[in-house]
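Example record for the data management plan.
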Amino acid sequence: MHKTLMMTAGALALATTFAAAQAPAPAPAPAPSTPPAQKTIAATMSVYVFPTTGQDTAQQSKDEAECYSWAQQNTGTDPFQLQKQAQAQAQQSQQAQQQAQKAGGGAGMSGAVKGAAAGALIGEIANDDAGEGAAYGAAAGVIAGRRKGREAKKQASAQAEQQGQQAQAATAEQMGNFKKAFSVCLEAKKYMVKY
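Corresponding structural encoding:
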């Protein structure tokens, strides 16, 4: 029994040693990482601000925040809301373009029906053959209907594009006015500003 107990203890010690050797080494502690540099308010709007009298980063951030508030109050514009508005306008413009592509659909069939009716009437009056007149009228109606459909599609597409461009121009003008006000404020605080 003593021999069995010794063999069991030895096997257990050997298994523990083997398991410890097979276990993966603990992962090294991660290197301390520096937090990513945060963009300034000006940088998020693609406005470049350079201190001219040695202002430190904290002072520049404070001045930018003050000028942002001042420009927002004086222009009635919030650039971050403008970005959201511009995205919404782009989606609306895209939807309007898609709807414009559907404009004039079925115009050929509608023209055929109208042409057939007119052709049947004229054919009956002219030579007592409403069927032949309807056929000619339907053919002419299809051609006229398709032409009207293409014109409607072209006009709707041009109108949607024009509305999208007008909205983009208005947004760009508002953003430009905000940047001017923001820049004037920062220049008064002795920064050189470019955008």
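Summary line stored alongside the record: Strands lie at 48-51, 191-194.
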